[in-house]
Amino acid sequence: xxxxxxxxxxxxxxxxxxxxxxxxxxxxxxxxxxxxxxxxxxxxxxxxxxxxxxxxxxxxxxxxxxxxxxxxxxxxxxxxxxxxxxxxxxxxxxxxxxxxxxxxxxxxxxxxxxxxxxxxxxxxxxxxxxxxxxxxxxxxxxxxxxxxxxxxxxxxxxxxxxxxxxxxxxxxxxxxxxxxxxxxxxxxxxxxxxxxxxxxxxxxxxxxxxxxxxxxxxxxxxxxxxxxxxxxxxxxxxxxxxxxxxxxxxxxxxxxxxxxxxxxxxxxxxxxxxxxxxxxxxxxxxxxxxxxxxxxxxxxxxxxxxxxxxxxxxxxxxxxxxxxxxxxxxxxxxxxxxxxxxxxxxxxxxxxxxxxxxxxxxxxxxxxxxxxxxxxxxxxxxxxxxxxxxxxxxxxxx
Length: 398
What we know:
Family: Belongs to the protein kinase superfamily.
Shape: globular
GO molecular function, one term: protein serine/threonine kinase activity
Oligomer: single chain
Pfam family, one: Pkinase
CATH class of the largest domain: Mainly Alpha
Largest sheet: 7 strands, antiparallel
Keywords: ATP-binding, Kinase, Nucleotide-binding, Serine/threonine-protein kinase, Transferase
Structural class: alpha+beta
Number of helices: 12
Strand content: 5-15%
CATH superfamily of the largest domain: Transferase(Phosphotransferase) domain 1
Protein name: Protein kinase domain-containing protein
Order of helices and strands: EEEEHEEHHEEEEHHHHHHHHHE
CATH architecture of the largest domain: Orthogonal Bundle
Number of domains: 2
């Protein structure tokens, strides 16, 4: 008979929902003893059945990069209950990258270069640790706080992989966010760290004009454009105030051949990022001062968002109507599970003035503050449960 997994008192109380996905929701959480706040990723074990290796992989990746770079979100703790797995990260309260930019009163090319330089330094660190992120996009770039000088953080390593070799044939699955995926991912010829450099090229383009280079009406058209490297610095009015140096940086990052694409280290050496003198197009109305990019960037972003929201709404209705008549009983059951899980996640939104609302714990032993099983010390363990205790956030995790 295998030994029963030990239980320890749950050290956290969870609060409002910060975000949700198919298999997980992210909640605000407080460590009871220290009073520190964290972002807690709550993963439904039933919905993840058969995919447990994905969580083990995420933990393995985060243990390599956590606490090693100030611009990478740290994994502080991980444990499980009867129904859920929990991963506790830094709580970033400053919002997503583009939202923070739009909230500023002005935004210059030098600001974009500074942001890209900082992010690329973190990407270089990730690559040096033998990791490829595979889902770099503005939504995964968060500010630690709302302070003007807050650190930008790379988050969400759910699709990341350990890759100690530079062989590009090891990873062949299609993954990521379509508009930021490199051509070799769609081609399924093998990919690696160069896909992160491609994504950084897309992010740079986006930060300079407010829309992505391969934005098309359908995902099929978008994929074809990415594979062909079909993009341009257009409409001209959105690029008139962007320097040739910035454009050349984007062009290098968006090199179709991954073996010819610059590494993160080489990208950092590009003169747009490495030069002490900022590159910009002078504003003729301001006696040669840098041109404020914010008006064009916001206008382009808002226009694309409104259009895309309408298109996606129509596509979703059509897709739901089509799928409803073709779902198998198993698929319908999964759809019900997902709907129920998301419905339950909505119930944990704050309903009081205080920052934390005590919740019913999903484990069978009782409530938040009762007993949970700690996660394994080794991500490759056959089960998530072991006899090791859950670590405090102010201790080394692993």
